[in-house]
Design a protein that fits this description.
By secondary structure, the chain is mainly α. It has nine helices and no strands.
């Protein structure tokens, strides 16, 4: 059985920071194939070089997209992000909610009040009460974590 190759320290760091290119094999630009300084696994370097090829060397968007293994809209989005925020704009952003958006302070206080009045109340029963009172559905583990204090509930807006 073949042994798996252990990732190097740079790859581990790129993964930790979220800048590991998920498709390094799709980068076919000559600099990344011929020069070891250019690393197709480094997403930030790939995106910057992609924009440089277009704006400085005049490669068309179609050619740039093909050489760097991305779609044309990705090139345009990277271009706009770079113009707006510089290198920081080329860093990947997490999508979706950045925090628990359903578990407000009022909801946590309500559940604590319910539990204080009836200590034997189950988490599932609390979720049902939240659905009836506030019209929100929360996951059992999210509520348990919030009640345990492992995550601060957000302040109501």
């Amino acid at each position: 059985m073949a042994q798996l190759k252990k990732p190097d320290r740079k790859t581990l760091e790129l993964k930790r920071t979220g800048t590991l290119n998920p498709r390094p094999g799709s980068v076919s630009d000559t600099l990344f194939k011929e020069n070891p300084f250019f690393d197709p696994k480094d997403l930030l370097q790939v995106r910057y070089e992609m924009l440089r090829r277009h704006s400085v060397e005049g490669l068309s968007i179609v050619d740039v997209a093909a050489k760097f293994g991305v779609s044309r809209p990705t090139v345009y989005q990277a271009q706009a992000a770079f113009q707006q925020a510089g290198l920081n704009g080329l860093l990947p952003r997490h999508r979706g909610p950045q925090e628990g958006h359903k578990l407000s302070t009022a909801i946590i206080d309500y559940v604590r009040t319910l539990r204080a009045a009836e200590p034997s109340l189950t988490t599932v029963a609390c979720i049902q009460a939240l659905r009836e009172r506030f019209g929100v559905t929360v996951h059992r583990r999210s509520l348990e974590r919030a009640l345990a204090g492992k995550k601060k509930p957000r302040n109501p807006t």
